[in-house]
Amino acid sequence: MNQWKERPQEQPKELPNEQSNKQPQEQQKWHYVPQRVFFEGEALAYPLGQKIVALCRELGLPTRQIPSHNRVTGLPGDTPNQKYAEAKKTLVVGVKRDLRFPTCRPSADYQFPLMTSCPGHCEYCYLQTTLGQRPYLRVYVNVEEMLDQAAKYIEKNTPKTTTFEVASSGDPLSVEHLTGSLFKTIEFFGAQEHGRLRFVTKFTGVGPLLKARHNGHTRFRFSLNSARVVRDFEHRTPPVAERIAAATQVARAGYPLGFIIAPIMVYPGWEEDYLQLFDHLKRELASIQPLSPPVTFELIQHRFTARAKKVILERFPESRLDMDEEERKFKYGKYGMGKYVYPDETAKSMKNLLRTALLERFPDAEIEYFT
Ligand code: SF4
């Protein structure tokens, strides 16, 4: 059943933003504009819920009230691929009821899920399986309640420092122009002596966050990959050059900076491609060296589960992702589940090559982990 009228174009258009209306063009063009908006009635009890729904109506987007952000039905699309694409064009505005924050190793102590999903269509994305049949974008409006809860976690763990990861369930920067929630969260953590925030993004709308009073307590990380991986698999995400340009803005604003190189893939010529990426990064960051605190890198090799492979091939039947189990090593995980990673020899040479190349170019960098 298709109860939604399609908008004539998919390209994002300019959106107002309460922190700044003057972002550079290249940032604004990646602003996500949904094609339809669902909201829980309860979300309207919160100023942020009212603001988002009013903004979407102002933009002429169709809106509809639903009983729960966990149950969204009636999206258009016949094939898995179409359903996936339509879900990504759907924004759901809800209240986060479960305020227990799951652990988030190795990136941080806890997850801090301000939102769920992302407008990108990366074929390898971990959300393919974690979100299953619910890849639509969800934003939560009870941010103050979530921050109050984070304060309790921090207090309980004091005098140790407690770290929270915002990007464990999606890309929070991709919807920041609609919510402003990341700005608020960054300023909250800026005032926490024992709390720290981290997130990773492929998006580039950093403008409004440059003014946030972060106090050096938020590490802003960008996800990067080789030109070929980005071209072949990271659909509907900003080009690497724009991500790096956004990273330099963030570093100039004094944020601790980091990069996640992931998923690292092996293909003919992969070594040169990754070295080119690092050279590009070095050139762009040269004007703001030394970075203080030192830049961090997290290195993650490509992996997949049997379930992920099935879902990915349903959604992207033409995918060229290398998911040949015969060429991989099976690594057992929790509850008997496992994933396919590169064989030990390949993983070892990948780790050595990339680690050495990064430290040659960024001698002060901290390589947090390779996994
Ligand atoms: S940008 Fe990140 S969260 Fe979004 S689809 Fe790509 S991998 Fe997934």
TrEMBL record:
Signal peptide: none annotated. CDD domains: Radical_SAM (cd01335). Pfam families: SPL (PF20903). Residues 1-27 are annotated as: Disordered. One of its GO terms (molecular function) is 4 iron, 4 sulfur cluster binding. One of its GO terms (cellular component) is endospore-forming forespore. SUPFAM superfamilies: Radical SAM enzymes. Residues 102-334 form the Radical SAM core domain. It comes from the Bacteria. Residues 1-16 have a biased composition (Basic and acidic residues). Residues 17-27 have a biased composition (Polar residues). Keywords: Lyase. NCBIfam families: photo_TT_lyase (TIGR04070). This is Spore photoproduct lyase. It comes from Heliobacterium modesticaldum (strain ATCC 51547 / Ice1). The lineage of its organism: Bacteria, Bacillati, Bacillota, Clostridia, Eubacteriales. The gene is spIB.
